[in-house]
Every structure is written in C-alpha cells, then in structure tokens.
What does this fold into?
Amino acid sequence: MRRLIEKYGKYVIWIVLISFLLGALIIFTPGRFDIARRGSPESRKPALIINGEKITQGQFDARFDELLRYYRELYRRSGLGSFDLQLQGASGAVYRLRLQTEVAQELIRRTILNQEAEKRGIKISKAE
It folds into this structure.
C-alpha cells in the first residue's frame, strides 16, 4: 500500500487539484456556463406574468441567450466584427435593455396568442 501511495500519490493530488480548479472555473465564470444559474431559485422566479401565466426568469434568460447567439452568428457571417463590442459601455447597456425588451415583447405576444388559441379551441401542432 505504501508503495502505491509513493508511486501514484503525486498523480492523484494533481488530478484532484485540476478537478477542483475546473469545477471552480465552471461555477464562477458568469455567463460562460449556465450550470450555476440553471435550477437555482432565481431562475424559477417569474420574470413575466401574462394573464396569470408565468414566464420564469430561466425561460426569459434562455430566450435572451438565444437572441444573443443569433446576433453573434449574424455579425460573424456578415463580417461586421464582434457583436459583443455592441454590448460594451453605456451605449451597450442601453442596447442590452432594448434586446431584453424585445425578448419580453416576443414572450408576451406568443403567450397571448397561445392563450387565445386555447380559448378558441384551436390546436397548433409542433411543426407549425
């Protein structure tokens, strides 16, 4: 047993240390990995309530992240540079608020349309 510890002890220590550092990186890197946010009480709080139907903060954040990915890809394909530069500084904060407003309006519009369709007995397939 002693020989095993002497032979492999250094490797075990390095593996534990690297695992700990990677775990800390994943947990404490904001916006890069959503593992810390996913399932948290904050993500389950309602961000919007439309006619009694709740849209959670997690759903709102997921749609907002989807919109940011779309714009990043659009800028990349168009050769316009980095979209993230548009979100920096005071004007970037205003632009981020406009995008969040756009997401909120889209979620409200979809929810109201779905509620009205349900009220009228209209069935919409997933494909449509």
The mean pLDDT is 84. The two ends are 64 Å apart (CA to CA). Residues 64 and 70 are 10 Å apart (CA to CA). Residues 41-128 form one domain.
